[in-house]
Amino acid sequence: MTRADHPTTAPPPATYGAVLGSRHVVRLLGGTLIGRLPNSMVPVGLVLWITGGGGSLAFAGLLAALYGLASGLSQPIKGRLMDRHGQTRVSGPAVLLNAGCLAALSWIGAGAHPAAVTAVVGCAGLVTPPLEAGLRALWPTVLPDLGRRRVVQALDTGSQGLLYIAGPLLASWLATTHGPDTTLAATAALGLVGTAVVLSAAPSQTWCPTAGVTGGGRLMSAGLVLLFIALAGTGFAFGAMNVWAAGMASTHGLAMLCGVLPAAFSTGSFVGSLIYARRAWPGTTTIQLITTSALFLLGWVPLLAQHGPRTAIFLTAIPGLFFTLIVTNGFHTVDTLAPPSRTTEAYAWLILSVGTGQAAGTALAAALAARPDVLAALPTAGAATALTILTLARGKLGPGRRLGRHRRHRRPRHPQKHHANPPLYEGDTRMTVAGRPGPLRVWNGSPACASGAAKEERLAEEQATLAWAEQFERSPLEGARAGSGVG
């Protein structure tokens, strides 16, 4: 008897209420959002702090760029350390050092010792806690069901756009009402509180992806490299859009467009995540990634014309609808291609690629700010580059078969012996992807180690799953989930 002989059990509902009502979800999602608010508050806070102390705007902008660059470049290193040592040992010391650096700035003073201020800001950026990559690594254990995980990952990505609306507004309000020093202190406190909420949760404390795994395997496959380059193009479009918004504000004499146009994009991103999470969409992850990239490109095309402010605000929300979907499917692709013991590091590389592309888009757009026609075309160019790379790399981004319908009570052509043994550890629902054994994880603090006869039994079950998947032309991951009745 094989897994295909078992009737399929209806998966648990993947509604917003069901997902947010799952244990630990609200706490982890809310804590991560609070802990990441400083990422959007610090650049604004530094500008207001330096200029309020008599410093130049150029120096303030340099510090803001330095903080973001240091934070982005250090992400993969922190991700790899987290894969090896767990989340508490990495994010805990990092957030303490980050908060200490931000608090030290007020003691140094904005008007004196620019070298010391630069060094402290750079250090603060290097030790920002890797909360986003860490949260992505927790979802498979918190929500083993793929449907619910898809919903929460879309909500996670979409809600992050709101951080870059709320963060600058909060920083500006604090600086206006209580002073720039208070802004930096509040930013440090928010980082501490959010990180503490996440690290004190049971899934974070017990998570350890490398239990029983030695080595780690090669991370940068051709598929991952091409994926990261493509997502850098997506980030380029986003970065260029911010400067284009400033150009629109200058052209029409409406300073509010500097904030309203990016806010419209972020609002569209959040709405897109809500729409995407409401149902399961057809096609493989690769197909969805390419399709949403094509729609993202088409969304920028109407903005090539020089529209008025109201029309531009409405049209800017359209590409925002698909930005979240591209990033979400990018993370799903990383799940398929990255070695199980280095997933957090791979997530960090994805985050870095988007951030690097965003910085490049901002820099190039700033250099071409005097040419409004070229400025409006840069987001389209970034989106077109991303789509071209993804289309050419389609065969390297994962299984390309379309997910077929599940037919019950069918046997594979080559039945394998079925072992009735339960999973080797609780929550062991992730099977083989493209012939690669699933990750060994820790759940409820118990190491997942398999040896001897248990390994042979598990290998036989995986072979049966692959045979079932081939019979019905499904990806191995979908075949394992449907055939075993695990939702």
Give a description of the structure.
This protein is mainly alpha-helical and 487 residues long. The protein has helices at 16-20, 25-52, 57-73, 75-85, 88-108, 114-126, 131-142, 146-178, 180-199, 202-206, 222-252, 257-277, 285-300, 309-337, 343-367, 372-392, 453-471, 476-484. The protein has 18 helices and no strands. The chain is globular and about 55 Å long. 49% of the residues are buried.
How do the helices and strands follow one another from N- to C-terminus? HHHHHHHHHHHHHHHHHH
Content of β-strand = under 5%
Shape annotation? globular
Taking pLDDT < 50 over at least 5 consecutive residues as the criterion, the unreliable ranges are 1-10, 211-215, 400-457, 467-487
Helix content: 55-70%
Q: How many strands in all?
A: 0
Number of helices: 18
The computed structural class is mainly alpha
Radius of gyration: 24 Å
Average pLDDT works out at 77
State the separation between the terminal residues, measured CA to CA.
21 Å
Largest sheet: none
Summarize the structure.
The protein has 487 residues and is mainly alpha-helical. 69% of the residues lie in helices and 0% in strands. It has 18 helices and no strands.
What is the secondary structure topology, with strand pairs?
Layout: H1 16-20, H2 25-52, H3 57-73, H4 75-85, H5 88-108, H6 114-126, H7 131-142, H8 146-178, H9 180-199, H10 202-206, H11 222-252, H12 257-277, H13 285-300, H14 309-337, H15 343-367, H16 372-392, H17 453-471, H18 476-484
Helix pairs in contact: 2-3, 2-7, 2-8, 2-9, 3-6, 4-5, 4-15, 5-6, 5-9, 7-15, 8-9, 8-12, 8-14, 11-12, 11-14, 11-15, 11-16, 12-14, 13-14, 13-16, 14-15, 17-18
